[in-house]
Amino acid sequence: MTIYNFSAGPAVLPKEVLAKAQSEFLDYQMSGMSVMELSHRSSLFDQIIKTAEKNLRELMAIPANYRVLFLQGGASLQFTMVPLNLAQGKKALYVNTGVWSKKAIAAAKAIEKVDVEVIASSEDRNFSYIPEITIDQIDQRAAYLHITTNNTIAGTAYQTIPNAGKVPIVADMSSNILANDYNVEDFGLIYAGAQKNIGPAGLTVVIVREDLLEQKVFAPMLDYKLQADNASLYNTPPTYSIYIAKLVFEWLKEKGGVPAILEADRKKAALLYEAIEHSALFSSPVERESRSITNIPFVTGNTDLDQQFVRFAEEAGLINLKGHRSVGGMRASLYNAFPEAGVLKLIECMKEFEGRQANVPD
Questions:
Q1: DSSP 33
Q2: Residue 73: which H helix or E strand, with range?
Q3: Is residue 15 pLDDT above 60, yes or no?
Q4: DSSP class per residue in 179-212
Q5: Which DSSP string do the residues of 282-326 spell out, in sequence order?
């Protein structure tokens, strides 16, 4: 039985990448060592991290005046690093679109020298939409405007990036980095946990405009400028995760880059949304114009039926479809490496399950 992994993260990786990593696992480039055994100061690892950065810059068209950092701590650490580095003694603006936005807001509020203002929220309708942001809502003296481009749990995403005037936009892009057509120059800083579209957990990518590397931070490990000045090698970085990321970037380039993968992602999402729209049992809790193509929640409206479907799907080899504990239902995470065949199998499973319910006597 073929297993299809719908996990929201850590998530599915390209089979070609896993096979390549397997072939090099015991002996990387005839060194007699695994990548996990390489010194981060070695010439072999220097080539790995520099190639990873070069390929990411090409894939995202990252301008020369942006620095690329490969850090640890997950996106959750960035909730603290961003205000520490950009907003001490200043105002920071946030848009609340779900669980991760709320955590970012809470982390910023914990820093005494940061004045946090939530300028918009979709909590009034259970985070089922992206609130509209207009320029008059944005204090032009603010250090930044923070958004979460794709809400993994709620299943919403920004279709266009708001106009913030001269205020830099900071984006948590963890779940749709390399799966969208956003322009890097529209942001002052982008951060993303790797475990969805880039590689295994343990690595966080930060893309930051050089003019924002000015604030002095009390802790070296939390200082963007220090990390940038040391080319992400201030301490031992997550070497194996960076190596896998390099392989994923190479795989993306072979697939035709972001435009090609975005087209494939949109097709996968369209197939599933169409099946949901035509179903008499399943429905989407997300407003149409705000729907993510990456994380797609759906429900039956009955908690017991939701649980039955999750078990039914697991028996068919469709795993990790259970929705986040805070919202329930089901969620299909269709990251770049997730195959279209898995979507088609899910749709087939949904139709079969629905047909069985229709034949159950009242």
A1: S
A2: none
A3: yes
A4: SS---GGG-SEEEEESTTTTSSTT-EEEEEEGGG
A5: -B--S-GGGB-SSEEEEB-S-HHHHHHHHHHHHHTTEES-BPPTT
Known catalytic residue: 100? yes
Q: How many CB atoms lie within 10 A of CB 74?
A: 18
**Which residue in this structure is represented by tokens 């001490």?**
88
For tokens 């005494």, name the residue: 112
Nearest CA to 224 among 205, 245, 240, 239? 205
Question: Catalytic: which of 172, 223, 265, 306?
Answer: 172
Find the mean pLDDT for residues 230-234.
Answer: 96
Q: Does the annotation mark 109 as catalytic?
A: no
Contact call for residues 210 and 65 (beta carbons, < 8 A) = yes
By C-alpha distance, which of 353, 182, 343 is closest to 268?
A: 343
Residue 137 CA: distances (Å) to CA of 120, 134, 186, 345, 362: 9, 6, 18, 45, 53
Catalytic residue among 27, 46, 50, 100: 100
Q: For residue 301, what are the contacts with CB-CB under 8 A and spacing of at least 6? A: 283
| Residues, the chain | 362
Whether 251 is catalytic = no
Max Cα distance, the chain (Å): 69
Cα–Cα distance, 148 to 221 (Å, whole number): 24
E strand segments, the chain: 4-5, 66-71, 90-96, 114-121, 144-148, 150-151, 156-157, 169-172, 189-193, 204-209, 295-298, 318-319, 330-333
Among the listed residues 179, 130, 125, the one whose alpha carbon sits nearest the alpha carbon of residue 157 = 130
Give the pLDDT confidence of 115-163 residue by residue, as tens digits.
999 999 999 999 999 999 999 999 999 999 999 999 999 999 999 999 9
C-alpha–C-alpha distance, residues 263 and 85, integer Å: 36
- Cα 331 to its chain centre, rounded Å, is 15
Which of 54, 91, 196, 223 is labelled catalytic?
Answer: 196
Contact 278, 298 (CB under 8 A): no
First to last CA, the chain: 34
Three-class SS state of 147: strand
